[in-house]
Amino acid sequence: MTVKTAASIRAKAASRRSRRAQRGASLLEAIAYLGIAAIVVIGAVALLNGAFTSAGTNELSEQVAAIQAGVKKLYMGQTQGYTGISNSVLASAGVFPSTVPISGASASNNWGGSVTVSSSSQGTFDIAYTNVPPAVCINAVTAGGSWTQIKIGANAVTTFPITPAIATTDCGTSAVAITWTSN
Fold first, then answer.
1. pTM (global) more than 0.90
2. What parts of the sequence cross the membrane (predicted)?
């Protein structure tokens, strides 16, 4: 027969309480887990934002270069220069890359703006993109290329390469229109 003393009863009760307390995660552990998860999510979002900006810049640069090359090829032997150039003529000739959505005579870009190709003088043509985000604008206009002028918003730049400082000032803090002029 075992004799139960007060001390043994208290020890057994304390042992049960200790086992109960160790079941599952404590509130502090749960808060720590959620904090770490939040930091990981914020980091992933920051990296994704940078990746999307970089992808947008690359796509814009490729589109503008493809349009420039296509226009030059299409009008190469023309004695009247770029007279009669329009989005509908270029769309019919297949000049626009497949990444530029075309609807009739309208072309659009990834940011909901328009893409317009026109000629203001016989020897030059313009490629205009509207509603371009500032981060994409800065990277696109500093990329270089064979342009006679790049107009960022209301500011025309004719000295190349465009420095990041000038691009940052001209591209501003909200969506902007960019017009590349080529001959």
1. no
2. 26-48
Q: Report whether pLDDT(13) > 90.
A: no
pLDDT at 107: 95
| Main-chain dihedrals φ then ψ at residue 3, nearest 5 degrees | -100, 130
Q: Measured on CA atoms in the order 152, 156, 162, 163, is the torsion positive or negative?
A: negative
> Measured between alpha carbons, how far is 37 from 47 in angstroms, rounded to an integer?
15
pLDDT of residue 23: 62
147-175 b/e (C-beta count within 10 Å ≥ 16 → b): bebbbbbeeebeeeebeeebbeebbeeeb
Determine the Cα–Cα distance for residues 115 and 63; give it in Å rounded to an integer: 10
CATH number attached to the domain at 27-182:
3.30.1690.10
Tell the residue number behind the tokens 């205009």, with chain if given.
Answer: 128
Domain range list for the chain: 27-182
User: Contact 151/142 with Cβ under 8 angstroms?
Assistant: no
What tens digit of pLDDT does each residue of 49-69 get?
A: 766 667 767 888 999 999 999
